[in-house]
Specification:
By secondary structure, this protein is of the alpha/beta class. It contains 7 helices and 10 strands. It has helices spanning 9-16, 28-39, 94-101, 119-123, 126-134, 159-184, 198-206; strands spanning 2-3, 21-24, 48-51, 53-56, 60-63, 88-93, 110-113, 138-142, 186-189, 211-215. Strand 1, helix 1 and strand 2 form a beta-alpha-beta unit. The two termini are 18 Å apart.
Length: 217
């Protein structure tokens, strides 16, 4: 499952290795790019199902606009966008999508999640984390601290203090998410070293290390 497919690089790499791939890209502009890239790879395209959907903790619908729910669509998504026409897109629960997609237990379930800050909302759902554990999933995770509430400079005199508070909020959120993830699986850096405690996890993120592997088993 390629959650936040972008231009489809990971989707096409997985399909070229024989994996069945369900890819998700809610950005209408980027969706057309990944759709074209899949079309340009006829040997692999039969293995890929592409969805113009946003993955979240709960299902529903959402308008693709800057002022919408930042826990699903952070403002960073709209950088360089001319969003003059509102587009309604489907928002679907990750748990529901896993239950729909993953029905062949003889194959491994691997998820890549790179969704510009929307991951924090998903990773705080014990229902979703338990679903990942029950299906013995491996999660390739990119985290984006603060993207769902980006720091906005306002007053030059106080911005230093405000930024420090913002970093502390991101640190605290990282501590909470590690505690939840660690209850359901093992967290590793991309070199496969185990991340063993929540302060190490939060400090890595604060220092600019944003990619992890989570093994739910």
């Amino acid at each position: 499952m390629d959650i936040g497919a972008a231009n489809g690089a990971m989707t096409l790499i997985a399909a070229s290795r024989g994996a069945r791939v369900s890819a998700y890209e809610p950005d209408p502009r980027i969706y057309s790019v990944v759709a074209r890239n899949i079309e340009l790879n006829p040997k692999s395209q039969h293995l890929v199902t592409l969805h113009k959907k946003a993955i979240s903790a709960v299902s529903g619908s959402i308008k693709f606009r800057r002022e919408e729910d930042s826990s699903v669509l952070s403002s960073i998504v709209f950088t360089g966008h001319d969003v003059s026409t509102e587009v309604e897109i489907e928002k679907i629960s990750l748990k529901e999508e896993i239950e729909s997609f993953y029905q062949d237990n003889s194959r491994n379930l691997i998820l890549k999640m790179d969704i510009e800050g929307a991951e924090w909302h998903i990773l705080r759902s014990k229902e979703i984390l338990n679903c990942l554990r029950l299906n013995k999933a491996t999660l390739l995770l990119a985290v984006h601290p603060g993207f769902h509430r980006p720091f906005m400079p306002k007053m030059r005199v106080l911005d230093g203090t405000r930024r420090a508070i913002w970093h502390l909020q991101n640190f605290r959120e990282s501590l909470i998410v590690f505690t939840l993830l660690n209850e359901f699986g093992n967290i590793r850096r991309t070199n496969l070293d185990r991340v063993r405690n929540r302060k190490q996890f939060a400090t890595l993120i604060l220092a600019g290390y944003y990619e992890f592997i989570v093994e739910f088993d």
